[in-house]
Design goal:
The protein is mostly helical. The protein has one domain (5-101). The chain has 4 helices and no strands. It has helices spanning 5-25, 34-48, 69-89, 91-101. The longest helix is centred in the N-terminal third of the chain and has 21 residues, at 5-25. It starts with a helix and ends with a helix. The model has no long low-confidence stretch (mean pLDDT 89).
């Protein structure tokens, strides 16, 4: 499968959000706690396997729910916490994410 800038951007955004959440909520001694490491691996796998590829919208607006229920609940918690804070910590990513949200499949 060819490299996709859209998929790479989505993965970078999800990673930034998970890192922000973990750092402030779990205060790990390393970059990420084991639970957040697992969530990041899972999220990256889901994004890489997305059938929409370069034409994908943000996962929250996707008509296909490819996350297992437990992982969907975890990532939703991360997004609720990190989403508003992304404007302070990663403003360019946050802006690009808002643009990507407007994208339709």
């Amino acid at each position: 499968m060819p490299k996709s800038p859209r998929v790479d951007r989505e993965k970078a955004t999800v990673e930034a959000m998970i890192k922000l959440y973990c750092k402030q909520q779990h205060k790990p001694s390393q970059a990420l706690c084991p639970d957040c490491q697992e969530l990041l691996r899972y999220a990256n796998k889901r994004v890489e396997q997305c059938k929409f590829g370069e034409k994908k919208t943000v996962c929250g607006d996707c008509p296909v729910h490819c996350y297992k229920k437990e992982m969907r609940e975890k990532i939703q918690g991360v997004m609720r916490y990190s989403g508003p804070r992304m404007l302070l910590y990663h403003p360019l990513m946050a802006f690009q994410h808002l643009l990507d949200r407007r994208r339709k499949n």
